[in-house]
Amino acid sequence: MPYTVNKLAQLAGVSVRTLHYYDEVGLLKPSKIEKNGYRSYEERELLKLQQIMFFRELDFPVEEIKKIMSSPAFDMRQALRDHRVMIELKKKRLAGLIKTIDKTIQKLDSKKPMDEKDMQEAFDTFGEDTVKKYAEEVKQRWGHTEAYKQSMERYAKTTKEDMEKYKKDADIFMKKAAEVSAHGALSPEFQEIIAQHFDALRTWYEPNFEMYRGLAKMYVDDPRFTAYYEKYKPGLAKIFSEAMLYYADQNEPKK
Question: In the chain, how long is the greatest CA-to-CA distance?
């Protein structure tokens, strides 16, 4: 049965203006426009709107949604599976926020100051670690890909203890990388560091050399990534980027 724009807006809980906007930008076109100019939508558009709303719930920008959904590779069933994984992640984060609120209320009611450990846990709930930042960049650059799906699934299974160990290991690795960088990006010593770096990505997804080149470019193009590497040694982001590109060129199987 066809839906008018008003009926669809009411059913989906969005405004008519939003549906008009989605039509204008080519994200959600009506199935047909009647002679009187009224928009008419069918079940196909209803399902598509559901997909759009899931993406919006996960903070995907409209242009990114349009790019993903217009891709010939787009699969609605797989997209729904991906949505479920990402919403589980969001659920996990919200559960952490609720726990932090409850703890803070308890401290206020008892009139006891929060100790340093409690404060750290509270800030960790809000904070963004390197892995979260990287996951966001993967989403923006590669969107609906197997690598992104793998990273989200694996991250969802990590415990707080896993993350603490990962951060400590990463810090040790970065200090070693800063020291070895004195030999130069193309040196055997630093290329061994890069080989470990490439292999470490398997913690989150199975890397390939095309993606690795994209990541190398990100290290120097994105100030957030650059800042992370520069805190260990000035110029380290550029050295890493150059070394990663060289590693990919040297190790990618020749066609």
Answer: 73
Strand partners, 32: 40
Same domain for 134 and 235, yes or no, is: yes
- Answer with the residue of higher pLDDT: 111 or 22: 22
Q: 118 lies in a domain?
A: yes
Are 146 and 199 part of one and the same domain? yes
Per the structure block, which two tokens stand in for 231?
A: 């805190």
Report the CATH number at residue 212. Answer: 1.10.490.50
Q: What is the residue range of 32's domain?
A: 3-60
* Distance in angstroms (rounded) separating the CA atoms of residues 100 and 123: 9
3-class secondary structure per residue, 137-188: HHHHHHCCCHHHHHHHHHHHCCCHHHHHHHHHHHHHHHHHHHHHHHHCCCCH
The rounded distance, in Å, linking the Cα atoms of 175 and 90 is 32
Residues 170 and 240 in one domain: yes
Rounded Cα distance between 27 and 39, Å, is: 14
CATH number of the domain residue 46 falls in: 1.10.1660.10
pLDDT digits (tens, 9 = 90+) for 26-67: 999 999 888 888 889 998 898 889 888 887 877 778 887 887
The span from the CA of 228 to the CA of 101, in Å, is: 30
3-state secondary structure string across 110-129: HCCCCCHHHHHHHHHHHCCC
C-alpha distances in angstroms, 79 versus 75, 87, 93, 105, 205? 6, 12, 21, 39, 18
Domain count, the chain: 3
pTM of the predicted model over 0.85:
no
CB 143 within 8 A of CB 134: no
> Are residues 147 and 253 both part of a single domain?
yes
